[in-house]
């Protein structure tokens, strides 16, 4: 029964996990919203539904959306709006899911 009053020390693994969580872009917050919307950097949202303007990352997800939301209209892949088609990348902006903090 000895040692119960001893304060626990932080392990190197725990500290490394905290540093990783603090410095890795997980895609949340305002920056994550801009990334998911696909407006500024062409992030995750590659395709846009021509009927309701909902965005999706790939054709399969858009087909699932279309079957659920627009069942009476046949799915036509050629009518989808590709948000990445006219996008020119800017290397100075932060990329989604990149390790490391911007404070360095």
Walk me through this protein's architecture.
- The protein is mainly alpha-helical.
- The protein is 31% helix and 6% strand.
- It has three helices and three strands; from the N terminus they run H-H-E-E-H-E.
- The chain has a three-stranded antiparallel beta sheet with strand order 2-1-3.
- Strand 1 (47-48) and strand 2 (55-56) form a beta hairpin.
- It is elongated.
- Residues 1-11 have a biased composition (Basic residues).
- Residues 1-43 are annotated as: Disordered.
- It is found in: Cytoplasm; Nucleus.
Strand content: 5-15%
- Series of H and E elements: HHEEHE
Mean pLDDT reading: 77
Binned, the helix content reads 25-40%
Tell me the radius of gyration: 21 Å
- Lateral arrangement of strands in the main beta sheet: 2-1-3
Q: Low-confidence parts lasting 5 or more residues at pLDDT below 50?
A: none
- Secondary structure: number of strands: 3
Distance between the termini: 46 Å
- For this structure, the quaternary state is single chain
Alpha-beta content class: mainly alpha
Biggest beta-sheet profile: 3 strands, antiparallel
Net shape: elongated
The number of helical runs is: 3
Brief digest:
This protein is mainly α and 104 residues long. The chain has helices at 12-23, 29-37, 59-69, and strands spanning 47-48, 55-56, 81-82.
Helices, strands, pairings?
Elements: H1 12-23, H2 29-37, E1 47-48, E2 55-56, H3 59-69, E3 81-82
Antiparallel strand pairs: 1-2, 1-3
From the structure above, extract its key features.
104 residues, mainly alpha
